[in-house]
Amino acid sequence: MSESDNVEATKKGYAAFAAANLDDAMKVFDDDVEWVQQGRSTVSGTYHGKGEVGDLLAKFAGKTFTTKPKRYVADDDVVIVLTDVTIEGESTEGASRIAEEIRASVLSLRSQQHGVPIFA
Prior knowledge:
By secondary structure, the protein is of the alpha+beta class. The protein has one domain (3-119): Roll (Nuclear Transport Factor 2, Chain: A), CATH 3.10.450.50. It is built from three helices and seven strands, in the order ααββαβββββ. Strand 4 and strand 5 form a beta hairpin. The protein is globular, with a radius of gyration of 14 Å.
């Protein structure tokens, strides 16, 4: 896949999550996905496989959660997404921010499954 194809696949995954369509959002993940949630919160840690990642996304979906992609940067099969994130009123943008912060997600699109690019 081209870099632009990888960016489009990433945008579709973010759009599915933003629309609370977890089924479609989960389709973009490889069965062996590894998700590292940085920080010191109750959801921080490393999640392995679709089951654990699905449980994490369900926790996010159960809260007032938004992620607003601001920029997509692609290099071969890696896409970096710069986002503003709000979880139950705590935002990485605006006056409530303690420090200037940009959230970055690094996604590796290594293959396709049934014609759908998957995040590894």
